[in-house]
Amino acid sequence: LWGVEIGLHKSSISLIIAFGAGLELIVMFLGAYIKDHLGRVATLVACLSIFGTGFVIMVAKPDLAGMVIAAAVMAFGNGLGAGVNMTIGADLSPAVGRPRFLGIWAIFNNGGKLGGPTLLSLIITVSTLRFGVLFPGLLAILGAVWILIWAKQVGLPGRRRRLDPPDVRG
């Protein structure tokens, strides 16, 4: 929608999206490494702040170059966070009642998938498309700040603990 708004041809928009999707697939491996070695908090903060910055770039530079840069930044951020939501759900789930917890976690996750676009449509209806593009970016950046503030209170794990080597003494 934003690409059409700034006058890009539909084939250009498609190529930009394909470029972003390909980059995201490549970055997923780096995201998994970061998640395992630097921790969930570092992964989530990087994902949200980088992804959100892509939306800000899109609005700040409303042309072809801006869309390509924004797509690359958003793909990089989103690729870093691949799977982090479900991983955090598993990390926070209690030993007793884990299936129920993860089921409720999935309900909220799916509710966000439904509610996010609905909320964004309402925002665009009552404001402008420019603000509708900017809003999720700002929300993602605020989410990164929220995670930094509340991670310890919520109980999000930091770095992965290395397991001690097995005792092989006979």
Automatic annotation (TrEMBL):
Q: Which InterPro entries match?
A: MFS, MFS_dom, MFS_Efflux_Transporters, MFS_trans_sf
Where the record annotates domain Major facilitator superfamily (MFS) profile, the positions are 1-170
Transmembrane stretches in the record are 12-34, 41-60, 66-90, 102-125, 131-151
Signal sequence segment? none
Which key words tag this protein in UniProt? Cell membrane, Membrane, Transmembrane, Transmembrane helix
Q: Where in the cell is it found?
A: Cell membrane
Write down any Gene Ontology CC term.
Answer: plasma membrane
Q: What is its main location?
A: membrane
Under the heading PANTHER family, the entry gives: CHLORAMPHENICOL EFFLUX PUMP RV0191, PURINE EFFLUX PUMP PBUE
**Protein name as annotated:** MFS transporter
- Give the organism the record lists: Brevibacterium epidermidis
Q: What is the lineage of its organism?
A: Bacteria, Bacillati, Actinomycetota, Actinomycetes, Micrococcales
